[in-house]
Amino acid sequence: MAYADKDRIMDFIEKIPEKTIILDVPGDEADWPTWKMCNEKFAEFYIALHDLSRVAEFNQAGIKWFWPYPVTSYYELDILVNCHPSYIMIGPPLSFDLD
After folding, report:
1. CA-CA distance, 24 to 50, in Å (whole number)?
2. For the whole model, what pTM was predicted?
3. Which helix (H) or strand (E) holds 68?
4. DSSP state of 89
5. Which letter does DSSP use for residue 86 in this model?
6. pLDDT 10s digit of each residue in the chain, 99 long?
């Protein structure tokens, strides 16, 4: 979901409760009260986090996040796994190397 549509999150959650919603958050935006509420009300709510320097903030707040860029090496995978994302997108050539 584009950040410009963030005001419609609750509508989506109520209308389509079985879907996964990933909110694409640009830069240093922070709407903690809304994100915490969505996170508590909807198990499949995630933030697409574009800046790894913000990982501690999100983990500390208990907000689930997704790294929206393909991970292509074991080096990148190791770094991201240690940051505790909810999802990681694996891309080639790494995707050919894993079971």
Report:
1. 8
2. 0.79
3. strand 65-71
4. E
5. S
6. 777 777 777 777 777 777 788 888 877 778 888 888 888 888 888 999 999 999 999 999 999 999 999 999 999 999 999 999 998 999 999 988 877
- Taking the mean position of all CA atoms in its chain, how far away is CA 94? 21
C-alpha span between 87 and 43 (Å, rounded): 14
Q: Which two tokens stand for residue 63?
A: 């907000």
Concatenated DSSP letters of 14-25? HH-TTS-EEEEE
Element (H, E) at 87: strand 87-90
| Residue for token pair 């929206």 | 68
CB-count exposure of residue 22 (10 Å: 0-12, 13-18, 19+): middle
